[in-house]
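Q: Could you predict the 3D structure of Acyl-CoA dehydrogenase family protein?
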Amino acid sequence: MRRTLFNEDHEAFRDTIRAFIEAEVAPYYEEWEAAGHPPRDFYNKLGELGVFGIQVPEEYGGAGETSFKYQAVVSEECARAGVSFGGYGVHVNLVLPYLLKYASEEQKKRWLPPFISGEMMTAIAMTEPGTGSDLAGIQTTAKRDGDHYVLNGAKTFITGGVLADRMLVVARTSPATPENRRAGLSILVVDTKSEGYAVGRKLEKIGLRSSDTAELSFSDVRVPVEDLLGEEGRGFEYLTHNLAEERLGIATSSYASAAAAVEFARKYVQERTVFGKTVSSFQNTKFVLAECATEVEAARSLIDRAIEALDAGELTPADAAVAKLFCTEVQQRVVDKCLQLHGGYGYILEYPIARLYTDARVSRIYGGTSEVLKTIIAKDIQV
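A: Sure. Here are the predicted structure tokens for Acyl-CoA dehydrogenase family protein:
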């Protein structure tokens, strides 16, 4: 079906991203996966390309675009090539909305220019070994001491945690109350070079191997009070405000992954022969690809509506939950079927379908598990 989401500007941007991937990513991607992250200067190249600043207002050096569509193009082109931009997604889709909405004018002038250039890469540290999706259970503390907070605790599963220059750390600045477990949380924008800030293990994952994921620890880290993001004690409110966009970002990547899987499989079965015929000539192959293409089309329709809703300021947390739940489940089914059509070669990492398969598994976990999303949707429909 004809797609109407993108205009000529978006398609010109797509051409730029596609050429950049061919020149700067694809030839080196196996090295990135072996290392566990891109080289640090790759982010400076993304900065030079201008992709970090698309949604940053012009007064801070950005392009001033408010639409999410440019980020959707990046997701689609990365999936099409079977690659990833490492910590890019966290930097732009997770951290930037917090800075734009909650940073003070002084903080924006200080942080956004290096954010745009890639000089200052960012990430966000919410999850702790004992909390997972239960953010109200956060134990990391930040106690006021004069003009500093003293930060103590630990975080895990922190994407971008190895190379980040500034880390948004969610910490408890005051105890929770019996009436509200979510009270007392704040967000500190911590300089990762601070004394007492330590990057622990770089976690070895089954997928997304070019994206660094780490454990962090904080031992009496002194954070200037001017690096508090927004107001003290309102951290949980801030976190929930950005969840819709975060989940839409995951849903968009999941849809793009499923679409790419169909294209990889389509090309493979047209070239591969068995019993003297191309794999594409068998009825089962045709039916499987038809099923996958139909699911991808349904996911695309949902994604396009959700992106338009986000751009209009109308995407609700329940809407985003629906998009993420559906698109991640479609991704899992479609990628699995497309890998099956590759036969044994689908299990070999030199084929992009194998990377799509291992990368896909976490989509139903991070950003809110499928089970958590179902509870949000059920509440929304008043079940």
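Q: Anything worth pointing out?
A: The mean pLDDT is 95.
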